[in-house]
Design a protein that fits this description.
Elements: E1 4-7, H1 17-32, E2 36-41, H2 51-64, E3 73-74, H3 79-91, E4 95-98, H4 102-114, E5 137-140, E6 147-152, E7 156-161, E8 169-171, H5 179-189, E9 194-198, H6 205-215, E10 221-225, E11 228-229, H7 245-251, H8 255-264, H9 277-283, E12 294-295, H10 298-311, H11 314-327, H12 336-345, H13 352-358, H14 360-363, H15 371-377, H16 383-395, H17 401-415, H18 419-431, H19 439-446, H20 448-462
Parallel strand pairs: 1-2, 2-3, 9-10, 11-12
Antiparallel strand pairs: 4-5, 5-8, 6-7
Helix pairs in contact: 1-9, 5-6, 8-10, 11-12, 11-13, 12-19, 15-18, 16-17, 16-20, 17-19, 18-20
The structure holds one RNA strand.
Length: about 475
RNA sequence: GGCCCCAUCGUCUAGUCGGCCUAGGACGUAGCCCUCUCAAGGCUGAAACACGGGUUCGAAUCCCGUUGGGGCUGCCA
């Protein structure tokens, strides 16, 4: 049997952390089993679905590298199909027309609630059929008693009492299918074998099983994965901060870090933490999925990001940061200078953005001294140091780390100063601040001309010439 | 309220059918080392089986209950 899974987002917003993870699980399960991973757009809510959301979801999927097989299916283009199947149910007596207006129902529901009663629609108003011209919804006729069993691959058998399930609507008055109905029709027609979805859908499953049975369709396998929560352990939402995949991309996170982190949230493989995409495909299995909800932890994501940043080829990092640097007005291009900068900034960057932020003094000649740095390191007693540095560096023929290092040692010997006493003022002179890669590396990358120039500027800032 | 799910360090988790667990790893955190700053790296530490009953020679692991958390309760998906 070929495994066929699907991801079925509704284009009513961004692809967020939770949705991305169920997509990842479905994708991994399909790829692991050499099956198919399909995409279906659930856009039956005309009011809330937008093309912008759809575009963003597709963009995020591509960014994550979650490739799907076949062209995506759009539910809004399949209205006829749902109507046809709903009519079949009508004809066979497994569904019936309901003429009660939503407003009226809402009223009844409210009244029941106020009286502390349990509200349920079980055909009691079915006879209130108005004339044939009146608009109607179609409801499924559900059993009054008995158990409905959900066989969940993760949680075993879960029993639902048929009494709890009312005659829910399958086709709305506007002719659109409801979520539960469209899902079942499509999952059947698409021949989905395994449905991996969020825990929050568990309650929908008995309803969907009822539809499968009424239609005479084969019931697929289900696995309800637990949800991702915010730090306060409630359902992850906007108030927890950034939740969309695109936001993390813009923060400078790598897709490989995102995939690794999300896959590891609710799934594990012994003590292993680092998984490449290939590793995940090879190792993923339903048995290792956890049952309890997981809290989203941005710090661990960041740690993974630094890990992947360390091993990403310099050229690839360059491709990612060059556009961002250009936005800042830096004259950056893929050359040895940029590659050297990347190597120096690798261990010092948590995100792609960090590379850009930390490289400013390599791409601008206007160095602004941080106040604290200037007060502490650009002082009169440094004048002799700067002077001898300028003098000796100027004489250097080859401006590489070794030669620079030797020059520093020479000055240390002559003055009796420790390296720190020379390096820090120099750092401030060259970068404007007290934090940077190793001073020799910085100097080599900047080149002789700029180094001497900046040292001179620092000297005059102190009043040394 | 009703129904359903869940319960190991702050967080993600290991713990496969009860003994090897004085509970392991990772993130974060504390200290130390390295060191021209900042990182990175190395070492060390603090930190958890929700509670109460069973079953058993023996339970984090099985059963029941309590508590806690989450989800659902729409002609939203």
């Amino acid at each position: 049997m070929t495994v066929i899974t699907r991801f079925a987002p509704s284009p009513t917003g961004s692809l967020h952390i939770g949705g991305a993870r169920t997509a990842i699980f479905n994708w991994l399960f399909a790829r692991h089993n050499k099956g198919k991973f399909l995409l279906r757009i659930e856009d039956t809510d005309q009011a809330r679905s937008t093309d912008e959301s759809l575009d963003e979801i597709l963009r995020s999927m591509e960014w994550l590298g979650l490739n799907f097989d076949d062209i995506p299916i759009r539910q809004s283009e399949r209205l006829e199909i749902y109507r046809e199947y709903a009519n079949k149910l009508l004809d066979s007596g497994k569904a019936y027309r309901c003429y009660v207006s939503p407003e009226e129902l809402e009223q009844k529901r409210k009244e029941a609630q106020q009286n502390g009663e349990f509200f349920q629609y079980k055909r009691q108003w079915a006879s209130e059929s108005a004339g044939q011209d009146e608009p109607f919804a179609i409801r499924l006729s559900t059993p009054d008693h008995g158990d409905i069993q959900v066989h969940d691959l993760l949680r075993g058998i879960i029993n639902f009492d048929a009494k709890e399930i009312d005659d829910f609507v399958i086709l709305k008055m506007d002719g659109f299918p409801t979520y539960n109905f469209a899902v079942v029709i499509d999952d059947s027609l698409m021949e989905i074998t395994h449905i991996l979805r969020g825990d929050d859908h568990l309650i929908n499953t008995p309803k969907q099983i009822l539809i499968y049975e009424a239609m005479g369709f084969k019931v697929p396998m289900f696995a309800h994965v637990s949800m991702i929560l915010g730090s306060d352990k409630t359902k992850l939402s906007k108030r927890h901060g950034a939740t969309s995949i695109e936001a993390y991309r813009d923060f400078g996170y790598l897709p490989e870090a995102m995939i690794n982190y999300l896959a590891r949230l609710g799934w594990s493989y012994g003590d292993e933490e680092i998984f490449s995409k290939e590793g995940l495909i090879e190792k993923f299995s339903l048995e290792n999925l956890g049952k309890s909800a997981a809290v989203f932890n941005p710090e661990k994501l960041t740690w993974l990001n630094t890990h992947y940043l360390k091993e990403k080829p310099g050229k690839e990092i360059a491709e990612l940061i060059i556009p961002l640097m250009k936005d800042k007005g830096y004259n950056a291009e893929l050359d040895d200078k940029l590659l050297m900068i990347i190597e120096q900034l690798r261990d010092r960057s948590k995100t792609i953005i960090d590379f850009v932020d930390q490289s400013h003094y390599f791409y601008t000649d206007h160095i602004e001294y941080e106040k604290k740095a200037r007060d502490k390191f650009l002082k009169e007693d440094n004048i002799p140091v700067f002077k001898s540095l300028i003098k000796q560096l100027t004489m250097l023929e080859s401006f590489d780390q070794d030669s620079i290092h030797k020059t520093f040692e020479d000055i240390m010997k002559k003055t009796g100063l420790k390296l720190g006493k020379i390096a820090q003022p120099t750092r401030v002179a060259l970068t404007g601040g007290t934090v940077s890669p190793g001073i020799f590396e910085v100097m080599e990358i900047l080149g002789k001309e700029k180094v001497i120039d900046r040292l001179n500027k620092a000297l005059s800032a102190i009043g040394g010439n």
